[in-house]
Amino acid sequence: NAGVTQTPKFQVLKTGQSMTLQCAQDMNHNSMYWYRQDPGMGLRLIYYSASEGTTDKGEVPNGYNVSRLNKREFSLRLESAAPSQTSVYFCASSERDRELFFGEGSRLTVL
Amino acid sequence: GESVGLHLPTLSVQEGDNSIINCAYSNSASDYFIWYKQESGKGPQFIIDIRSNMDKRQGQRVTVLLNKTVKHLSLQIAATQPGDSAVYFCPERGSYIPTFGRGTSLIVHP
Question: Which of A41, A45, A59 has the CB atom closest to B102's CB atom?
Fold first, then answer.
């Protein structure tokens, strides 16, 4: 049982480059989330998807787009990366108001 | 300001001591609370939860206390071990979307 799988685990980009972070869960959860974590800032919600076919902005959505490809997969795209987007990104899934299951994180550096 | 307030960003304890991590919440309608533990280099993981119809819930070496009158939660860890060193979160859930604060960093000294 893999839980929540994120790829890639590490990525270095140059300013202006684009990339997509992939996330997949095998727990049949309806809700999926993308958070970013910066030192001293805790976890901040970027986007979430309450169910397949829906996505909503979180606290810090600027510079990001998401796609809920199907019930299992929720991707996060940076169209034009900026140094301020250097962070650790966590994908999570849950069933309605139950506990969140997190992936191991994707560490992104934008030069 | 943050809807989730943690009284101490860092808590240092000696191995074997009991640890108490506190958390305040703002939404009096909140009816379900979860504590998460995040070890270095990993994603947060569920530790224990409590419903608002309970005042206390015990797990293995951990106890969560809920005081709805003052909107306060605490996580008690008995006989703290080096493996308990981590950041602990008690996210507030608004409209089913959890809002995480900075967390409390627990440092266990041998």
Answer: A41
